[in-house]
Design goal:
391 residues, 14 strands, Beta-lactamase, 34% helix, eight-stranded antiparallel sheet
Amino acid sequence: MTSRRHLLAAALGAAATAACGSSEHDRAGNDDERRNERRNERRIERYLDAHWPQGAGGTVVAAREGEAEPAACEGRGLADREAGIAAACDTVYDIGSVTKSFTAAAIVRLEMTGRLDYADPLAAHLPPAADVPDDKRGITLHHLLTHTSGLPEGLGDDYDPLTRDAMVAAAMDAELRSEPGAAFRYSNTGYSLLAAVVETASGMGYEEYLVEELFTPAGMADTGYTLPEWEEERVAVEYDRRGRPQGRPYEHPWAEDGPYWNLRGNGGLLTTARDMHRWYRALAGEEILDRRAKELMFTPHVPEPGGEGKVSYGYGWDVFAPGALPGDVGTVLTHNGGNDWSYARNAFFPDLGVMVFWVSNHAYRDGRWNIDEHDRALTLGLAELLAGRTG
């Protein structure tokens, strides 16, 4: 991690050279700021020591709104046990269904730039060869974004060698679980269809569009499926419940240009904690998504089952209303994701002005830890700590 105090020291050195000195009062203020930064870093480290499961590898980033560098970005445990490589801020992980937030952002940007409309029928943006039956003709892009299309959760295993057109055909043949727009039913298939829509609406490959229109403007050079050229030692090895290595994400059965289409668009994206902080900062501006686009993305469109009216789904985000979660954290915008080995959580707290992202490459170990049980402490606890709500 490049700490804030190192950046601050460099900036102060340059300022001193340019200004030929500063007042004792200014120097005292800068010293106080450095001490506060070190104190905050130690508090976060102590908190993670208490709440991160011992033995699990992973990385955590926590940041305040408007600050160029995160308050903390640190690895926990090992990214590769066999090679003895420690997890770090720039370790690359599979973030699972957090991918859906980026697929949704791509659709939102395409709408913002006039390439499609949320009310468009899915049929208008499928490949020309697609045969859309009558029961699917009422499905809109809004339904896909909000998991209200009625389509099945999945069409098979993530690693089945399924092409885009074969995925579309299988989705069109699948039996609907409910009428389009009638109910929230989480659907990975729906988000893979949205990835296909990104391709037909943009004329670009799904990952190519994300890199050009989202990741590059945000400075996220380490996010993608295959386009980033990561050094192998930077990519975390995933581990199963018995501690056995399962390889790096791209070492599972993939096509040459990324995951097959049971996974593409709904999961499997690789990124770093530092890049996730860059995404948070990018969404604070309007270069990638303007104010209206972000409002639509974060609108609580559809209540989620079991949320008692306080948890809804936006476009690629779970939206927790004030009071839905313990503590006085206000609105929470979040998404999690995982497979049998890795688990990730991304959360924005607009009322607190902070973000928290964490990910593990060994989320579960039989008889020792289940990182799901630490989710609340790692997410809400870190946010409250960063916002000064706890000591």
